[in-house]
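Worked problem 6 (solution included).
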Amino acid sequence: MKNVLIFGAGQSAPYLITYMLDNAEANDWFITVCDRDIKLAEARLNGSKRGKAVEFDVNDEEMRNSLIENSDIVINFLAPKFQYLIALDCLSHSKSVITASYESFRIADLHKDAVKKGIIILNEMGLDPGIDHMSAVSMIKKIQKRGGQIKSFISYGGALPAPDVKSNPLDYCITWNPRNVVMAGESGAQYMEKGYNKLVSHGQIFRRTWQVDVDGIGKLEAYPNRDSLIYRKTFNLKYVDTMIRGTLRYPGWSETWLQIVKLGITNETMSIPNLSEKTYAEFTEMFVPLSGNGGNVDTRVANSLGISPTGKIMDNLRWLGLFDNRKIAKGANTPAEVLEKLLLKKMPMPAGKRDMVTLVHEIKAVYPEKKNKIEKVTSCLIDYGDPDGFTAIAKTVGAPAAIAAKLLLNGEIKLTGCHIPTNPKIYTKVLKELETIGIKFTEKVEKIK
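Solution. The predicted structure is:
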């Protein structure tokens, strides 16, 4: 029997856990699900005899190491800040680990150690990052095999409510970790456009937006996502002069979120004493200069931000509850945590409704051996959640990690070291199985010249 250890049972983990349990009998696996919320972990197992739940404190070094030592593979779905800690423990015990988190430079530096230990540290094995990389590299290889030189690579990803869900003025619902929403853009962004490198700070991310038309959805807005240029070498795009990765939202999101960032409410490092004793209005007042003009706190906020006190953005901030006289929910110590709890309260997915994920790749390529013919290839994935089952985000984040775990346990992936899924030994097999569960791209080719 092989022991599969899963850290984290949150909103992105249900499909992963169910997949591993569904395949446990045939492959003789036992699944241990660890979470600080033992009841949540037990619920994810749904009474399966092939699994057990463990109440888990990630800071308990002895427990952490004991669990890893007694496993055959680790799937880490904890918050990204624990990625390095878990990777080090897995190295210490020579256990392979899979995560959906971005591969940080610290993780990448573990490559030689992982090779020596004979294990793989497989990162970015989710939706975005994950499926986006695998599908992009698959497209790129096909174009290059036909003699194409890729001049422009633009890729978009978004986890959104389905278009028919109109439950709040921001057209967004929380179907995954709210921290990921609150901290979006915190590191700024870097991309290339028409041969020019562009750098964008956190404070400017949500100002640098543009419209994107997605077949089957309509008009969305995009903002730049992290460092696009690190993938230029990974994807072997030596001729590219435009390289952009963007995040998708419904129109209007960014203009409101820009003001939230400008206020400073996304700060997750500053701990505020006695925060739960304050009202939301008192909390928001803390971000406004003492000399701010206006009577009520919302007017002073509007004047401080330089926006209309009676405009749409202020309506959104009022709806969110930032000016309410209610006491702040207990358990929040930083501004970001206050915001996370507000989003969870104000933006749930309505009963009977479904979420949606979309990935879009737009590639322009020139073919020197075909009289410099230019074509644009657009590849699009749209996947909807099941109102009575898995969300689209849980399915598309969990499935790649689960499939990769199965392949590793069955000896079908023999790589060692630190990897993201741009190696054909990984992505060809994973994409093939993803198609069998309905996660499939449609492709359109347009001749430009």
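Discussion: The chain has three domains: 2-123, 131-252+353-390+440-447, 266-346.
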